[in-house]
């Protein structure tokens, strides 16, 4: 009995030592490695299988580390020795849920610079006496509501998101909020530019944030209010094909700015919710726009990320209402109106190209 116990102990110690040797011989961890992309178990399994079946080699990711020991460890423990996040993700509750996955990586995009939802301070009052004025002029023109030829709908769930250069005297990032000088200016411009390209566009005039304030609702309920706007808009205009919810990222200028041909642009990122059945179609839509931006305006797109319905994320973002619906983060708090306008014009360029190309294909 003692011999059996001793042998079992020796076996366990041997296995532990083997794993330790693999780890020590393979580790090359940088301080910020937990912020990078991790390679999946599927990729690790494919690599190991390819050692026996060479026909699998073409489908293995180019960046796959050709180390049997590392891939074996990754396959059986889900630990990537060059990604600290994999050590922590199973030990810290909520870390996996709070970490969006990069679906399409644009230039320079990693886990250090993903879009951040930053609600305004609760004590920041931007409405003043306007809070009681429910019947103001922020209504959509009735004549336009009756038009049946709208093809694009633009709205803003966080319509008070603003930019520091627009707000003289404001320095704190989370104070980049304004009832007039905000992301809706870009929505109006995008609508105008699409109209100029022959695409009739409905731009939402109602303020989601004002309705939240009027009803005593929280910032986290923004998408519940904007959902009603999307439903009503698409109900009244059944020909709407493309839907965009425009936002401003909270990231700083070094992340959200790109110089192209000597001119500065505010970079964009697409956000796709996974908590609905249209996820794959919306992702394909985002990928199309990303690739078109890459071709015409290299580096302008930061790519696309997914957000699941957990960890405090909405996870749907009203994208279940259409197979061509996206959240688009345009620029960050430090971008100037000039930079933002250039980007909006570029977006109008590729969106119109996508729409007319798709319309031609559909008509064939």
Give the SSE string: HHHHEHEHEHHEHEEEHEEH
* Sheet with most strands: 7 strands, mixed
Mean pLDDT, all residues: 78
Overall structural class, as computed from helix and strand content, comes to alpha/beta
Indicate the percent of residues in helices: 25-40%
CATH topology assignment of the largest domain = Aminopeptidase
Rg measurement, Å: 24 Å
Which descriptor suits the 3D outline? globular
Instruction: Label the CATH architecture of the largest domain.
Output: 3-Layer(aba) Sandwich
Oligomer: single chain
Overview of the structural elements:
There is one protein chain. The chain is 38% helix and 12% strand. The chain is of the alpha/beta class and 364 residues long. The protein folds into two domains: 2-96, no CATH class; 128-363, Aminopeptidase (3-Layer(aba) Sandwich). Strands 1-8-7-9-4-2-3 form a seven-stranded mixed β-sheet, sandwiched between helices. The protein has a two-stranded antiparallel ribbon with strand order 5-6. β5 and β6 (263-266) form a beta hairpin. α6 packs across α11 (337-363) and α10 crosses α11.
